């Protein structure tokens, strides 16, 4: 399962259906099935990590920006990543 861009071409792959685990506990079912789906994504991403893109913010807003030695926070570099 997945898609990869090669120049102007897109290669997509589809795997077999993933049967859902149903235990009767909705919270457990969500966690288990989400992890199983992420395991499939991880396999594809390890094969070609350059194809990965995130469109939503994934880092918490309360993490202070990184600085390099001699650089203080609040530089244009830090503002660009926010």
Helix and strand content put the structural class at alpha+beta
What characterizes the major β-sheet? 2 strands, antiparallel
* β-strand amount: 5-15%
Amino- and carboxy-terminal Cα gap? 32 Å
The outline comes out as flat
Number of helices: 2
Number of strands: 2
For the biggest β-sheet, the strand order reads: 1-2
What does this structure look like?
The protein is of the alpha+beta class and 82 residues long. It has a domain at 1-51. It has two helices and two strands, in the order E-E-H-H. It has helices spanning 26-47, 76-81; strands at residues 2-6, 9-13. A hairpin with a 2-residue loop joins strand 1 and strand 2 (9-13). The longest helix has 22 residues, at 26-47. It starts with a strand and ends with a helix. The relative contact order is 0.12.
Topology:
Blueprint: E1 2-6, E2 9-13, H1 26-47, H2 76-81
Antiparallel strand pairs: 1-2
Short summary:
It is built from two helices and two strands. A hairpin with a 2-residue loop joins strand 1 and strand 2 (9-13).
Features:
disordered C terminus; two-stranded antiparallel sheet; alpha+beta; 82 residues; flat; 2 helices; 12% strand
């Amino acid at each position: 399962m997945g898609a990869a861009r090669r120049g102007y071409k897109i290669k997509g792959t589809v795997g077999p259906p993933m049967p859902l685990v149903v235990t009767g506990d909705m919270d457990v079912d969500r966690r288990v099935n989400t992890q199983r789906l992420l395991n499939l994504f991880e396999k594809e991403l390890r094969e070609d990590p350059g194809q990965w893109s995130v469109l939503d913010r994934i880092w918490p807003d309360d993490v202070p920006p990184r600085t390099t030695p001699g650089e203080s926070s609040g530089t244009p570099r830090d503002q660009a990543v926010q």
